[in-house]
Amino acid sequence: MSVRVVARIRPLLEKELGKDVIVRPDRVEEGKPFTVVKIPNPKNETEEFSFAFNSVYDQTTTQEELFTAEVAPHIKALFQGLDLTIFAYGVTGTGKTHTMRGGLRLADRGVIPRLLSNVFRRGKKLMKDTNGRTTVDVALSYYEIYNDKVYDLLEPPEKRTAAGLPLREKDGKTIVVGLSERSCGDLKDFERLYIEANNNRVTAATKLNAHSSRSHAILRVKVTQTTGDVVKESTASAIDLAGSEDNRRTDNGKERLVESAAINKSLFVLSQCIDAISRGDKRIPYRESKMTRILSLGQNNGITIMILNLAPVRSYHLDTLSSLNVSSRAKRIEVREIENEVVFKQPPRPNAALGGANIQRQPLR
Ligand code: ADP
Ligand code: MG
Known about the structure:
Elements lengths: L1 E8 L14 E3 L9 E6 L2 E9 L2 E3 L5 H8 L4 H5 L3 E7 L6 H5 L10 H19 L4 E13 L2 E4 L14 E4 L2 E4 L5 E3 L2 H21 L8 E12 L2 E11 L6 H4 L3 H26 L10 H5 L7 E9 L6 H11 L4 E6 L28
Parallel strand pairs: 1-5, 1-14, 6-13, 6-14
Antiparallel strand pairs: 2-3, 3-4, 4-15, 7-8, 7-11, 7-12, 9-10, 12-13
The chain binds adenosine-5'-diphosphate (ADP) and magnesium ion.
Magnesium ion (MG) binds next to helix 3.
C-alpha cells in the first residue's frame, strides 16, 4: 500500500483579483520542485507555518500536468491488478470538483475523464496486442455518502429511500447492497452516464435543501481483464469529498449540525487512515467511517493519492489552515520569523471562463 499526499493551489478567480494572497508554494532547496506550502499564523502574522507534502502544485499547473504527474504513472499498476484511490480534499470553493471533474473544454478536463480515457485506451491496446485473447470490461458505479448514508447516483433520486443503501461484509470486503453497476464501452458512454449521475446528485441535494458540497461523491471504475479462465479485477476510485470547512461557523441550524458531525467524523477518519498508511502501521482505522470502510482503505494492495485543494486568498485563512493541518504528512515542520512580503512571483493567472462543471460529450483525444 502506498500513499501520496499532494497539494494544489488554485489560481485567483476573477472576483478575487487584487485580493490578499496568503498561501504560497515553496521548496526545501533552490532548484528543487515545490514540496512545501506556507501560510501566515493567523494569531501572529509575522510568523509563517510550513507544511510538507510529497508534491505541491502552484496556480500555473494545468489539468494535464497534474494528471500526467500524479495519476498516469499508476494506470499500468491498475492493469496489473492493484487498486487506485484518488481523493480531492479541501474547503468548498478550492477546486476539488475542478480537479476531479473539470471544465467543458478539452484542456480543462479533470482527473476523472482523463482516467477513463486512459483506461479505455490501454484496454483497447491490450485486446489488440493479445489478438483478442484478453478482453477488458470497464464498469462504473457512482454513489454519494450524505449524513453517513449511501445513495446510488446512477439511479434517479425518486428511487432513494431515507435509510439509503445498506452495507454488508462479503469475503472480508464491504459491499454496498443494491449498488448499480453499468458497463461502459467508451468515453462517450461514460460521459453520458456521468452527466446524468451528476444531475441526479444536484436534484437530490436540492430536494433535501442541502448542497452537494456536503456529500462525498465516489466514482468507482471496475476494470475486469479476462484471459480464458483467468479473471483479473481491479478498481480505480475517484472521490470528490465534502467540503472540509466547519459549517458550524457559518450556519448553525440543526440540519447543518448533523451534517457537520457526519462530515467531520468521516474526514477525520480518512486523515487517520492516510496517516496510518503513510507510517506503515499494521492497524488502519478504516472501519470507523462508512466511506473508508467501503473503500477498504489501507486493506487493499494499492495506491492512494490525496490531493489537497487550496484557495490562495485570505478569506479562507482559518479553514485553509485546518485543512493543511489535517492532510499534511509532516504536519508543521517549522515556524520561522519572516517579514510580510510579496508572495507569488508570477502574477496570478485570471480564471479562464470555465463555466459549469459538467462535461459535455467530446471525442476521444
Ligand atoms: P470545490 O469543488 O472545491 O467546491 P470548485 O472545483 O467548484 O471547488 O472550484 C471553485 C471555483 O474555482 C470554480 O469556479 C472553478 O472553476 C475554479 N477553479 C478551481 N480550480 C481551478 C484551477 N486550477 N484553475 C482555474 N479555475 C479553477
Ligand atoms: Mg465541488
